[in-house]
Amino acid sequence: MNKGDLINRIAENASLTKVQATEALNCVLNCVEESLKDGDKVSIVGFGTFTCTPRAARTGRNPQTGAAIQIPAKNVVKFKPGKELMQSVN
Question: In what side-by-side order are the strands of the sheet with 74-81?
Answer without folding.
Answer: 42-44, 48-55, 74-81
